[in-house]
Amino acid sequence: QEPALRTDLNLATSDALFTRAKDHIPGGVNSPVRAFRAVGGHPVFMQSAKGAWLTDVDGNRYLDFINSWGPMILGHAPEVVLSAVQDAIQGSLSFGAPTRREVEMAELIKKMVPSIEKVRLVNSGTEATMSAIRVARGYTGRNKIIKFEGCYHGHGDSFLIAAGSGALTLGTPDSPGVTEGVAQDTITVAYNDLAATHAAIEANKDQVAALILEPVVGNMGLVAPAEGYLQGLRALCTEHGIVLIFDEVMTGFRLARGGAQELYGIKPDMTTLGKIIGGGMPVGAYGGRQDIMDCVAPAGKVYQAGTLSGNPIATAAGIAQLTYLHEHPELYPELERITTRIADGTRQIAAELGLNYTVNQVGSMFSVFFTDKPVNNLEDAKTSDTEAFGRYFRAMLHRGIYLAPAQYEALFVSTAVTDDLVDHYLTACRESMREAHG
Ligand code: PLP
């Protein structure tokens, strides 16, 4: 039962909690984007969620298009995951010793992502990417990595390098606390520019250990790879002995059972995973070719460890969600159909207002860019009218639609979104677009 579209939100309890939070937590939040700074206003504090709907601490309900930034592909609190977790907690919350579930999880991941021959579980996407580049460096004996402007790989030092620098320019720290020494080993290149990548490799001959990218980018808003781009990167890496790492923390198990690599038919050397793999619990993983993964301790010399890695509750949730996805391949085309309705509908609504906005979509991920320029890289994305986006975001929130509180994010659709809920979204979208441009 959908609440009627409303604009008079009472956020008193959220506001009071945010005031308290700011006294104790930096910026009042445990992850920066949650603070709503890019869109204005205060964050909404959540209480519970089921299916497609979130309920906040003041009792307001929202149709959710963040889905915990991706993990909740089956919607919130699906029975299949909840019951697996309930079973698991009876057997203790952690052992710090091997368990059957870790073996089952590894087997399941390998079955769904065949480029992975061996896999190590960690606790977040950040840990997965940090570990993957260490392994790639250990394997190749080289120091540098190539990353792409606008791709986000978690908050490891090596990845917090300024976007916008040219293909051949060495990175400079993006965040205080990242040393110049670390930054010098990260080379940044524009996404979707194969020639620039080639030039960067030539300029750093025999020094590049790994090339890491989001094969479909979610972190500058949703940006798809150009035709032949991923194939081109694959060929360059093979030719130059560079480890190709697909960061599929967002796209893994979302764009297809086997992620973007299945969708585009590319076999990376290593893959990093997170989000969906934990069903909402903190899990990440990195894996890939056996000869590379056998460098990881204790099989090899590259050290990586974790007190809670392979945690029984997290693996129970992950196994349950992945098993469901594995057994229901039909949900992927259905997710795409629903998301296409949303993307097409949004494009049309903007056009009715004379706004030729770019709506990018791949499978169940989409972004509405407030620009009429096609968006194929960070520079394009930055042409968006972020002020208008902020007004749109607030108008949608007040109509009970929960979007990512920043222009440069992807939105995620869950299997809980029905055709009726798409209609509900589109009604809110039409009113909010008008309000944002009124
Ligand atoms: N890699 C990608 C592609 C991501 O989108 C994210 C997080 O959004 C990460 C890595 C980092 O994952 P986590 O936030 O779990 O550390």
Key phrases:
binds pyridoxal-5'-phosphate, 14 helices, Aspartate Aminotransferase, domain 2, 438 residues, seven-stranded mixed sheet, alpha/beta, 14 strands, 14% strand, four-stranded mixed sheet, single chain, Aspartate Aminotransferase, domain 1
Quick recap:
With 438 residues, the protein is α/β, with parallel strands linked by helices. It has helices at residues 12-24, 79-89, 100-112, 125-140, 180-184, 194-203, 229-240, 259-264, 290-293, 312-327, 331-352, 378-381, 386-398, 419-437, and strands at residues 46-50, 53-56, 61-64, 118-122, 144-148, 186-189, 208-213, 243-247, 270-273, 284-288, 358-362, 365-369, 401-402, 411-412.
Description of the molecule:
This protein is an alpha/beta fold and 438 residues long. The chain has 2 domains: 12-64 and 330-437, Aspartate Aminotransferase, domain 1; 79-327, Aspartate Aminotransferase, domain 2 (3-Layer(aba) Sandwich). Helix content is 37%, strand content 14%. It is built from 14 helices and 14 strands. The chain has helices spanning 12-24, 79-89, 100-112, 125-140, 180-184, 194-203, 229-240, 259-264, 290-293, 312-327, 331-352, 378-381, 386-398, 419-437; strands at residues 46-50, 53-56, 61-64, 118-122, 144-148, 186-189, 208-213, 243-247, 270-273, 284-288, 358-362, 365-369, 401-402, 411-412. Helix 2 (79-89) runs antiparallel to helix 10. The longest helix is centred in the last third of the chain and has 22 residues, at 331-352. The radius of gyration is 21 Å and the shape is globular. It binds pyridoxal-5'-phosphate. Pyridoxal-5'-phosphate (PLP) is lined by residues 69, 124-126, 129, 152-154, 214, 218-219, 247, 249-250, 274, 284. The site of pyridoxal-5'-phosphate (PLP) has 16 residues, from helix 4.
